Fold each of these.
Amino acid sequence: MAVQFPKEAFLSEKQGIGRREFLKVGVAGAVVLGAGDALAFAAAMGTPKSRVVIAKDAMLRGSASTVDASRMTALLDRAMQSSFGTKDALAAWKQLIRPGQVVGLKVNTIAGHGLSTNVTFVEAITERLQQAGIKPYDIVIWDRTGHELERAGFPLSSAAGKVRCIGTDAVGYEQTPEKFGSVSSRLSKILTQTCDVVINLPLLKDHVASGVTLSMKNMYGVIDNPSHYHGGGCNPGVADVNMLPSIRKKVRLTIGDATSACYHGGPEYKPEYLWRANSLIVGSDPVALDFTAWQIIERKRAEAGLKPLEAEGRLPRYIATAADARHQLGTNDPRRITLVEV
Amino acid sequence: MRFGTRIRLAALTAVALTLLLSWGCKKQSPVLPASNELSGWEKTSETRSFTPATLSDYIDGGAEQYLKAGFKGVSTSDYKFQGKIEAVADLYVMADANAARTIFEADPDGNAKIIPLGDAARVFTQSVIFRQGPFLVRIVAYQEAPETPQALIQLAQGIEKKLSN
């Protein structure tokens, strides 16, 4: 059965006390150390709660079916300000990255443009990164293959002076695998050699194997052998992949795309089970993010009259594994998650 | 089993074998319609094919469900209707009709309209799914428009006709 958040886990922005405090010791710490170390850092600082921000704009599309660019930028700004506790969005970006760094934007494009990271959303991020001092060429939109990126609406580019957009198939994987637990995988050179910092930009999806995916599962798009780890509901595969040193070191923040999300039939694009959630889900604790994603999917499935994931044998067990003593990638305890809706 | 049914099954098996052999030879799928074979429909990409070993390259973790049910291969092509509605047609070849039914019935009907096509078919506002013998066909559109469902049905009927011949 899905665990429900206690009431106190849902705070409005006004109720979200400790925002500035969180800025100082929560997000900033996680950013410095890498998201994988967020929990240990938070515990060490005596701030056991992870913050998950859900920013929503019911009018994100206006009267059209596509996302409005200016509203998307405003939504992103709101999400970043709330996550970092800053007065303006630019200040938030400047806490996350600094000029001279190469910033990777790991999108999710395997399902084609019907169910891939929204292009307008990514454009808004590249705009803000440049305003924060990152040169266009130092921004790298990337995923497994160029073909998938193009099909999802991201034109490939390696031109000087422009934002790069490249697939791992163009540069390859490391020769030597990184290992943890059940996983032994070669990592994309875009992660290991090109990027200094990676921002994870996954989608909110139901997933036929693992139940739900948002933050951690997107790292399957970083390794050379993801099909090896789909058995057992992707458990412990997802947790183990996220323990690989290069991933822990470089992935600093997740901005989950829930502009359109799927509550059944994922990860394939099945438009009959999509809904326009018009939201972004932001945080540096990947476990808390995935736990939150799970709750959202369960609620939507219940609204649609579908069985809970457990009844379908698809409980996302990898989330608890990622939170266990061996992994400590974050928290799946709703009492230790501050959920802020803005 | 009636004689007519046996003939139909034999014909479907022959089509399935042809498809499997065409994958081996890296030829185009003979079933997914070419441009202008159906009024208003243009084929906008090469046909790509995936085998059990490569299915996860196409549908990631979704592959597990198909492999478990008995997956043999899939061909997929992009289409555009009257220059404005983009769609993707997937033609799955499963081990047998039961395997195709397993995948078809794994998803709820929801608000689908049931239409007479193949052995069973569902139409949604942006997709058509039908099964016929060992075949499972899924056609999805990226744009929602008043003409989308009927256009998708037209494409589905074109594929069904080829499967039957």
Note: DSSP finds 13 helices and 14 strands in chain A.
Amino acid sequence: MARGHHDIGGLPGAGSIDQSDHPLSDWEILADAVNQALGARGVKRTDEMRRAREEMDSAAYRDMTYYERWIASIEAILIEKKILTKEEIDRKLAEFKAKWGEP
Amino acid sequence: MNEAAKAEHGHDHPKHELSYCAKRIYAIRDLLIEKGVVSEKDIQCQIEYQEARSPANGAKLVARAWVDPDFKTRFIGDPKSACAEMGIDATAINEFVVLENTERVRHMVVCTLCSCYPRPILGRPPDWYKSFNYRRRSVVDPRGVMREFGLNLPDEVEVRVHDSTADIRYLVLPVRPKGTENWSEADLAKLVTRDSMIGVMDPLNAIPE
Amino acid sequence: MSSASRFNPGDPVTVKFEDRPGHIRTPWYIRGKTGWVERVHGDFRNPESLAFGRDGLPKKTLYLVAFNPSDVWGQSAGPKDKLLVDIYDHWLESAAEERNGHE
């Protein structure tokens, strides 16, 4: 099994801490709120979301930003619980593209 | 939200330029509402709940603890009840522990496995708290991390690093800065930074009048 | 305070070295290390089962366990420094016999 990609306490090679902070984008605020709303409605547990992030592709875990990982885990858990399907999400996105003016 | 806040929050960012995941949350949101899994109101309530939470809450609690020894005892003994006294809603925290700093002891909090943080009190954690470098280094080199934040501690001081791996949420009660006798709570609260309640630094120094 | 917890403050304990699959909240770096119980936090639902949509019952006792950094990393910057981790009961075994030496 070995160590999960999230289980990083004490791993060597960590550099200095970047203390800069960024104001959250719309989509990050939305990700945060959707996550909390799903929890408040009892749809998912925090530990299910953590497990989904632990099960992600390790390269994706490393390369995604914090809220991108949250969105990936929200999607994974909703699909696992058969609340949504990937195809539905893809279709909804295709509808948006027209609205958003995809070049 | 006013125009300045909107711009800061990236309202103007063209959606077709967002990353793969960023786009998908909009689709997920709409589908969840269409299917009645959550409502528009649920989401808006969560946004507002989160906006109301900030380090100012923690600073109020710390300042009160500094001026009122009985409150400090209650704050350390039963933090959730002490929060309720001050009109701060800590009910979302499963178990809340206050770590009292002294001249001889400093505490520092990290979540190496993810980003556990006392959000109902302090709001969202800063980016650096969630960063891989902080999560990797804090448990093995806490003094090095503190030095980066400007805190140099002698060997006689005990540094206690807490890895917040479970349902406990930790808040550091920093040491009251010297030279603040007779200061008002409001002025004391201004010295209490978010980072001093995580424990990577001490509160701001009092500036002599 | 939970009644009759297996360990009490002051008890020497060793974190089990197990490599089990699933959602584990015992960090890799602390497995196999020996410290002592500082506090009995109380009983909480088991995240290992919550993570898979189960109810997390029966609850497990959660302990605050303290370690000397030199016992974990082989070194410690400050001679008095401590490392503290919240660890569930089923990940701990008594280190009392080790402390007492061989029979």
Note: Helices of chain A lie at 26-40, 46-55, 58-63, 66-80, 86-100.
